[in-house]
Write a structure and sequence with these properties.
Blueprint lengths: L3 E4 L2 E4 L4 E7 L8 E7 L6 E6 L6 E3 L7 E6 L4 E6 L8 E8 L13 E2 L3 E6 L1
Parallel strand pairs: 2-11
Antiparallel strand pairs: 1-3, 3-8, 4-5, 4-9, 5-6, 7-8, 9-10, 9-11
């Protein structure tokens, strides 16, 4: 089982950038699909981005496409979310998640392991 811990959240002005990290302290996540989700106050958790185990493939929510990138370093057991051109509507708690082999899904229920989340606040 992977054990995920996010970091890197904070307060940033609109147009700025942040890089989130998700470190795994459990078993290696080399075979896992890794993803980022976010949840804004009063809203449901929504998919942001995902990356295949070998970093060859990624997919993104339309709302972040072209602004966010996802990457991973399996040797460091860490996945990253680089967020550029941030907007106030990107404000949310960002969660790292893992699933074993279910590629292409955007549904939170398909991810069995979650971190505790890190808050990103984008001011206008």
């Amino acid at each position: 089982q992977v054990q995920l811990v996010e970091s890197g959240g904070g307060l940033v002005q609109a147009g700025g950038s942040l890089r989130l990290s998700c470190a795994n302290s459990g078993r290696t996540f080399v075979h896992y699909v890794m993803a980022w989700f976010r949840q804004a106050p009063g809203k449901e958790r929504e998919f942001v981005a995902a990356i295949s185990w070998n970093s060859i493939s990624t997919y993104f929510a339309d709302s972040v496409k072209g602004r966010f990138t996802i990457s991973r370093d399996n040797a460091k057991n860490t996945v990253y979310l680089q967020m550029n051109s941030l907007k106030p509507e990107d404000t949310a708690v960002y969660y790292c998640a893992a699933n074993l082999g279910n590629w292409g899904t955007r549904e939170p229920v398909d991810f069995g392991s979650w971190g505790q989340g890190t808050l990103v606040t984008v001011s206008s």
